Give the backbone structure.
Amino acid sequence: MRWNLYTRIKGKRRRDIQSVISEAVKWCEQKWGPNNRRSDVLWIDISWKKSDCAGVYQYQDNEITIFVKEHLTVRDLIDTVIHEYTHYKQPMSKYSKLLKKNGYKNHPLEIEAIHKAWTFRKECWHNIKIRL
């Protein structure tokens, strides 16, 4: 696969897109480890449906869903994986209370997840592209 961070994913094979997501999740697991507050397995759902968001971490189900159609590039996919993995590692039981207090744009857990995606996207891509 001869992709780079800015490769547009529209029209690409599903299995190639799934590989990018899977390798990005594995990279996150190696970089930051599991959530030690949880004993259940983290589930990854890759959805091809339209959505109003790029991804979501569902705390109750311990599941990350990536909505592929809400992404333009490989970089967008990696950002979403890192963002949602960050939520998986955060104390999400505090999320709603912080949302009411701060709103979404000033939510400290969202700010951390966005910052982590921006900071680590290139490192992630550098490490996973050789396995794709």
